[in-house]
Amino acid sequence: MCQKTVCELFAGVGGFRLGLEHSSKDWKTVWFSQWEPGKKNQWAHDCYVKHFGDIDEYTGIDIAQVDKKIIPSHNLLVGGFPCQDYSVAHSLNGEKGIEGKKGVLWWQIRDTLIAKKSPFVLLENVDRLLKSPSKQRGRDFGIILACFAALGYSVEWRVVNAAEYGAAQRRRRVFIFAYSKATKYFKSVARKKPEDIIGSDGFFARSFPISDFGSLKTCDIDFHDIQKVSDAFAFPFENSGYFKGGKIYTAATIPKTEKAVPLKNLVEKNVAENYYLTDSLEKFKYLKGAKKIERTAKTGFKYTFSEGPVAFPDSLDLPARTMLTSEATVNRSTHVIQDPETGRFRLITPLEAERIQGFDDNWTDTGMPQKFRYFCMGNALVVPMITRMGNVLNKIFDEE
């Protein structure tokens, strides 16, 4: 059995760690990193530390300032990293190959893999990663795959709507699972057909079963020239796929859906008065309603801006919509429910936000301001999805 040691980058308030530990108490996090740029108070880091304890003086600083060699050895690297512009450029002296843009956090993951040679990697990102940037669809994900291949990894991916697998939120995220050629899992998967990996036998097929999938599309990446990938690669990635040795296999999969948790199962009772809408009620009705607005561009061109309606109030019989970091502010994306006890319109509470993401009650009630409790949940993972993947990882690690 392989030791279940974890390094958690961009840790937030600990969704990856909590989800893995729900699947098995054998998981041991040996290091983590959480730092919010531009913030005087590092509320997420402090919340993480309150629940799990700290490790060293480097866990709460900019990961770019951390020498990756000091990170303890681990068997699983995890992290939810931002979707950014991953384009690359030749270094100024022309001797060091390529350099990613400063501040782009994918390169911190790659540097960690170079330094620590993590056998397994599990990452999370917004699903638009597969289609970005808009002018060169698929380039950014292609760069990530090329980096993995250059370091000797195979990769599987899947876009998961959490509500389709029994959660309380219609949150779509892409998960990426990579594994080194030094692992037994790499060798076992390499013997299988790509369609079987995507359809039934692979990591995501076992974590999130599907009912069917479309035709397989293929493409090659020259992973020996990441600059060329950045400049010219484009490909219409589907929601599922497998990548090995420079060859992409991808197909659109249909989930074997499970019954989602409706919002009515999560609402609090005796909610405080400050969550109820008074002065902002009409503003919310306007923001969430359908509208057509005549506008004039800077060039003088006149056009009509239009958008459809958003549910008002949010149905208690359905899972929540995707929660954003702006939750509870006066904007179109904020959830507004009709309280089942009073019949009045109100915001969801921080505790309800935690339940929507699958965290334990009052997880973020650690002294941070209320707006940051919502912010942290808008940034977080759906914890039960990590537990599902943890259950499969347990079996994989048992066979290593």
Structure overview:
This protein has helices spanning 15-23, 43-52, 106-116, 139-150, 184-190, 194-201, 203-207, 226-232, 281-288, 350-357, 370-379, 383-398; strands at residues 5-9, 28-32, 76-80, 88-90, 98-100, 120-126, 153-161, 172-180, 210-213, 217-220, 240-244, 247-251, 253-255, 291-296, 302-307, 336-338, 345-347. The protein is of the alpha+beta class and 400 residues long.
Are there runs of 5+ residues with pLDDT below 50, and where? 91-97
Quick one: overall form?
Answer: globular
Judged by helices, strands and strand pairing, the structural class is alpha+beta
Q: Report the total helices.
A: 12
How much helicity do the residues have?
25-40%
Biggest sheet layout: 9 strands, mixed
Strands side by side in the biggest sheet: 2-1-3-6-8-7-11-12-10
Number of strands: 17
Order of helices and strands: EHEHEEEHEHEEHHHEEHEEEHEEEEHHH
Please provide a brief summary of the model:
With 400 residues, the protein is α+β, with helices and mostly antiparallel strands.
Task: Itemize the secondary structure elements and their pairings.
Layout: E1 5-9, H1 15-23, E2 28-32, H2 43-52, E3 76-80, E4 88-90, E5 98-100, H3 106-116, E6 120-126, H4 139-150, E7 153-161, E8 172-180, H5 184-190, H6 194-201, H7 203-207, E9 210-213, E10 217-220, H8 226-232, E11 240-244, E12 247-251, E13 253-255, H9 281-288, E14 291-296, E15 302-307, E16 336-338, E17 345-347, H10 350-357, H11 370-379, H12 383-398
